[in-house]
Design goal:
It holds the Pfam family Spherulin4. This is Spherulin 4-like cell surface protein. It comes from Aspergillus puulaauensis. InterPro entries: Spherulin4 (IPR021986). The protein has a domain of about 240 residues: Alpha-Beta Barrel (TIM Barrel), CATH 3.20.20.70. It is elongated. It is built from 11 helices and 11 strands. It has about 375 residues and is of the alpha/beta class. Helix 1 packs across helix 3, helix 7 packs parallel to helix 8 and helix 10 crosses helix 11.
Length: about 375
Amino acid sequence: MDEFVFVTPLLFGRSGPGTHSWVASDSGPGLVGASSPSCIFLQLTPRALLDSFPTDSPLFTALGCQSRPEMESLKHTSEGAAASPALHRKCQLRRRWWIAIGIAVAIVVILVIVLPLALILPNKGEKGKPSSVIFPLYIYPESNSTWGPLYTAISSHPDLDFVIVVNPQSGPGSSTLPDEAYQAAIRQLNTYPNAQKVGYVRTNYAERNVSEVLDDIARYSDWQSNAADLAMAGIFFDEAPHQFSDATRDYLNRINSGVKDATGLQGERTVIHNPGTIPDKGLAVPNTDITVAFEQSYNHYETSQESALKSYDADRDSLAYIFHSVPDMSESNLESFVEDISDRAAYLYLTTRTDQYYEHFDSRLQQFCDAVPT
C-alpha cells in the first residue's frame, strides 16, 4: 500500500500526548505500529508527520490545525511530551464543534424520517378493524370428521375468535340433551379457547309463541346441568323482527331477559338477534348484544344495501354481517372486501355457496378466516 489513507484523527490520543492514529505507507521516519491483511496501522508523532508529508498535505487540516505552521510549533516538542495547550484547546474545540453538528443532524434525521416511519410501518398489512367470525353451524355431525373443516379453521387461527351457532334440530330439540354424535362434536368445540357456542332459537319474526321460545332457552341452559362440557354461552335468535311495534318490542324484551336470567348459560350470556336487515330504531332493546344487520347475497349488498349499511348509525361492536353467494375472487380482493366491511361490523361470515348456505362447509373457509383482521 503506497498511499496515505486517513482513518480517524485522534489528536493527543490514547497512546500518549502528541500522537495520532493513521493508516499510512509502511515507510517513513518515526513510524511504529501493527499491520493487518490490508493495511498497516501506524502512529506518527508531530515530528514524523512534518518529516513524512508535503507542505500542502490535507493531513494537517484533517488533524484540526489551520496550517502546517501550527504543526511546526510541535516539531521541536520532544516526542511523547504534551503539545501546546493553546493548540490542544483549539483542536479540541474544533472536534467538539463537529460532534455538535453530528448530533444535530442525527436529531433531524430521527424527527424527519425515523419517527414517521415508526408510525407508518407497524400498520402495514394491518388494515381493517379486529373482528370475529360468526359461524352458522347447521350441519349434523355424521362422524368425528364431519366438522373437521371448522376444527381446522379454529385451531389454525388461535388469535381469531369464533361465535358458533349450534343448531341440533332448528333449536335444541325436544330431548334433555342432543344425541351422542352431537354431544361428541360439541365437546370437541369446547377444547378450543377461541370458540364460543350459542344455541339457535327461531322466533318467526315475533310470531312464535313466546313460551315456546323461553322453553328452548331453558333447554339449552339445562345442557350445562346435565353435562357441564356441553354448556352454551348465549342464544342466537333467528328470524328476529325488524319492524317496530309496541308488541314486538315487548316480545324482544321478554326473550332477552330469558337469556340473561338463564343460570345454565356461561359468561355474558350473549344475546344475538338476526333480522337479516337493518331493524327499526325502536327495536334497539336492552340486553341485545349483537344484531345481524345484513344476511343476504353479495350481489344484494353491492347493488342495494352497501350505502344503507355505511350510513347505519350503530356501534360496530354490536353488528354482524353474513354474506352468501360471494363470487370467486382473488385472495387480495377477498382481503380488501373483508377489511372494508370490518370497519362497520365486528362479526363476519362469508360463504361462496349459492344454496344450502349453512348446511355445508364452504371450500374457501380457510381463506375467509385468513382475511379477517385480528
